[in-house]
Amino acid sequence: MLVEELWRPVDEAAATKLRQALEGEGGLASALLAVERADDRQARQVEAALDLLAARVQARASDAIDQQVAALRAVLRGFEGDRDSYYAPQNSHLSRVLERRRGLPILLSSLWMLVGTRAGLQVHGVGLPGHFIARVGGDQGLLVDPFSGGIILDREVCRRHVERALQGRGSFHEDHLRPVTLPELIERVLRNLLNAHRLQQEPAERYRIAMLWASLRPDLDEPRQELAAVEAALSLGKPGSRPN
User: Fold this and answer.
1) C or N: which end of the chain has fewer Cβ atoms within 10 Å?
2) By residue range, what is the domain housing residue 104?
3) Mean pLDDT score of the chain, rounded to an integer?
């Protein structure tokens, strides 16, 4: 098998779209759709679904932050964490999360962000170690857990999440509650997908995600190590040009 069989023109196009999204052309939705290699028809369907949900939130929301949370929770009722097949790759694909109403914490939080922002609200992602949540209402807003249906979290619950995830390797601090940047969020999605494809024993998709990540972060060793591991496992032919 040759590298060119695993990294095709459609993958290069997705990498270009992802880089453009991270540079400000399209933002979060475009970036997530590029990660899953969505075509133009899928992208239009996703954008239309997000706009419809946002219109419903806007009709319910008010200036009060707790009412904004209530509006998002009501409209997004039924979107929850996939506890039965947590590590399935589909839980990291925005189009599939919208279709199945199930996903990983980071994708469900992204859904809250995408819908909330379209509705004129401030909704940011918060990347706790081992868990991903959202904050509604800016720096002094409310922390919510979209994976659990949008329940409100206090600082103490977040502290316990962090310390349980760190297992003595560190302690909770305020920086854990800061909003993540778009590149940070996408890198976390890519890590989740690498893990999912590794567990599912899907080396071709694992290779594609590693190449996508390497195209974004040529300074990192981790995606390069993933590429080398897959190449060795599949006894690939001499690689063609890699992203830089």
Assistant:
1) C
2) 7-185
3) 92
